[in-house]
Amino acid sequence: MNRTLENKVAIVTGAGGETGSIIARILAGAGARVIVNDINPDRAERIAVQIREEGYEALAITADIANRFQCVNLIESTREQWGRIDILVNNAQVRPRAPILKMDEWAWQRCLDVNLKGAFFMCQLVGRVMADENQERGGTIINLGAASDDDAPQTGLAAFAASRAGLLAFTDQCAREFTPLGIHVCAVDPGTADEVLRLCCDS
User: Which of 14, 112, 157, 185 is the most buried (most CB within 10 A)?
Assistant: First the structure.
């Protein structure tokens, strides 16, 4: 693979899952040093080991992105390890399924905390680092799961739908405020891992 992201550092949240792991491996294959984040330490380490066995650089860092202090630790650990952050992929998400009339309040809140508040924490904190330290090279922030609606209506996804609508609006605002700082922000559909690579290479 063409190593177009040579020496860049990428954080992929929720990278222990299927979509996140694919994105992490694609970015690593393009030359990026990848932080594999997941709330589950075993999943994160498994993916990081796989990437290293393929000859690329990866480090597992456990963090719940719904917790601001854990987000700070994730970011500071990344900087301590590799000295910079060039790419953030907000992939971590939860998708509780329950009819609105029966949905548990905890499930609703957890969905919003991870999918929306977690993206806010990571965009804000990484955005500050990029704005202060990246100078001419700028940075790229990609939010997954906010770009398009499902082909067919589905019941039981009220919390996820609300979080996705909020994330799309939040991404638009980030783009407005971050673009003058040289930081490219966009949203893509979770099923387009190759699009993530293209956006990272084009930024």
Answer: 14
